[in-house]
Amino acid sequence: MIEIKIDRDSIARNKNAGDRHIIVPRRPYLDEAGNRVQEYKWIWLIQPIPEFSYRYIPVTITCQYCEATFSSDALEDYAEEGDWYSAETARICPKCGNWECCDELSFESFSEEMIHDA
Ligand SMILES: [Zn+2]
Questions:
Q1: CA 10 – ligand 1 centroid, Å
Q2: In this structure, which residues have their CB less than 5 angstroms from ion ligand 1?
């Protein structure tokens, strides 16, 4: 069992807690006049934004199917769009794409007491 710990320094209170969307920048582009254009898109969330957000301290893990080795951070990149804090459930191998690639992972659960530890 590999326990993936919450980085205490990363814990932050979300100003937009309870919202059901986030607004993210699109890749900027130049219009016909050569002006840089920055557009934004709304992403609707499966669950409302929680009161706190945090990150996990990455560890090196090995896929049980293809035996690729990668950082646990890479799992988050494959979380479903809009489900931005679902690292706990995203266990898709970035190399072979198998779901539940790393059964031995255990993600530490967040509790508000961690804030006082920080
Ligand atoms: Zn794999």
A1: 28
A2: 63, 65-66, 68, 93, 95-96
CA 11/CA 117 separation, integer angstroms: 11
* Between 106 and 19, the higher pLDDT residue: 19
Q: Is residue 30 part of a domain?
A: no
Residue 84 lies in a domain: yes
Q: What is the pLDDT of residue 65?
A: 93
- Give the span between the Cα atoms of 58 and 13, in whole angstroms: 21
Q: How far is CA 56 from the centre of its chain?
A: 9
Residue 57 falls inside a structural domain: yes
**Domain of residue 110, residue span:** 2-16+50-117
Q: Above 70 in pLDDT, residue 13?
A: yes
- Calculate how far, in angstroms, residue 56's C-alpha sits from the geometric centre of ligand 1: 21
Average pLDDT over residues 36-60: 89
Q: How far is the centre of ligand 1, averaged over its atoms, from the C-alpha of 51 (Å)?
A: 33
Give 59's contacts (C-beta < 8 A, 6+ positions apart): 2, 4, 71, 72
